[in-house]
Amino acid sequence: MKYSFLIITVLLSVSIHAQKTYQRTYFESGSLASEGWINNTQKVRYWKFYHKNGNLKSEGHYKEGKKIKYWRIYRADGTKESEGHYLNDKKIKWWLFYDSQEKINHKCQLKNNQKNGYCLMYKNEKLISAVKYVEGKKIKEWTDFRSFRKENSLRDLQ
Fold this sequence. Notes:
Layout: H1 2-19, E1 20-26, E2 32-39, E3 42-50, E4 56-63, E5 66-74, E6 80-87, E7 90-98, E8 104-111, E9 114-123, E10 126-134, E11 137-142, H2 145-151
Antiparallel strand pairs: 1-2, 2-3, 3-4, 4-5, 5-6, 6-7, 7-8, 8-9, 9-10, 10-11
């Protein structure tokens, strides 16, 4: 009886560990396309994706095949394009968007992959306008910080 329990325990632990594997996929050219952990055919943990030229395309975490936590997205030339949070494969919270010089050109509050809250627009690293959205629909726009601050609580920007 003891040996049966021991054998079953060993077999279960081996099968559980055998399910998690590190996977790499490649483009037809042979360059790396993606790499990360697979558990029962679903992406888990940390993953990296690459452009065909070899530069990093995106990086972030998965849980049960869905994007979670903080992700960074890059252009083919290697410059940062955007970064922000995912929950269950949907963009949430604040997302930062960069121009080709990697300066923030806007940042938006998102919920379920759509603008929901404020979007702040920048030019040469200076705030030029703010827009409020509810479920992807534009509600109001401000072009000067004084009027924006007068009508809104800065706590809403957290």
